[in-house]
Amino acid sequence: MSAVDENEPKPATMLHVKQAIRRKLKKHGEHEHYGLNIYPMMDMMTILLVFMVMQFASSTAAVIQQSEELKLPYSTSDVQLGETTAIQISKSEIIVDGKLVLRLRNGIVDPADKRDGAQGFLITPLHKTLNTVRDVRKQIAASDPRRPFTGDVQIIADADTPFRTLSEVIYTLGQSEFGNLHFVTNAKK
Fold first, then answer.
1. In this structure, are residues 96 and 154 in contact, taking their beta carbons and an 8 Å threshold?
2. Three-class HEC string of 35-90
3. Residue pLDDT, tens place only, 126-150
4. Is 110 within the bounds of a domain?
5. What is the pLDDT of residues 51-103, one digit of tens each?
6. Distance between CA 102 and CA 110 in Å, rounded?
7. Boundaries of domain holding 143
8. Is 175 among the domain residues?
9. Is residue 86 part of a domain?
10. 3-state secondary structure string, the chain?
């Protein structure tokens, strides 16, 4: 028989390991969580993003590609515009700041898209979009007094746009507080 040496270390069991870990964790308190609250920073970045997008969108000149659907009339006027909202009226659609708002049939607004039907002048989808654009521009104007909301709008219309359609668009613009109208034309040669 062999003699058991009492000084010889015994192998640790899983129970002993877990107890040792718990003892160590008790000695050290939980770490306090120091973090950065990013919500105010996200709000600030969102406001800056909207401001930058609106600045970029309004500071660039209107890029217009003429086609069979959109042929601009000619004019001798040479007025430079600042910040404006662009309304493009072709034979098949109305576009606000580059986004499709409404489809047309041969330049005519469908009576279902007007508040009062066939005899109405207010184009409902255009009115909703313009109100959204107006509200954003007013928020920007409130935060930057150097850029007041003036209600400027560029109307880019096909030379053959029916007068009724143009009247409906202008009426809808007026109902959305866009009163300074500028028509985009080709320079007369």
1. no
2. CCCCHHHHHHHHHHHHHHHHHHHHHCCCCCCCCCCCCCCEECCCCCCCCCEEEEEC
3. 999 999 988 988 888 888 778 788 8
4. yes
5. 777 666 554 445 556 666 666 555 555 555 566 788 888 888 998 888 999 99
6. 9
7. 41-187
8. yes
9. yes
10. CCCCCCCCCCCCCHHHHHHHHHHHHHHCCCCCCCCCCCHHHHHHHHHHHHHHHHHHHHHCCCCCCCCCCCCCCEECCCCCCCCCEEEEECCCEEEECCEEEEECECCECCHHHECCHHHCCCEHHHHHHHHHHHHHHHHHHHHCCCCCCCCEEEEEECCCCCHHHHHHHHHHHHHCCCCEEEECCEECC
Confirm whether pTM is higher than 0.90. no
**Is 131:176 a contact under the CB 8 Å cutoff?**
yes
Structural domain contains residue 30: no
Number of structural domains (the chain) is: 1
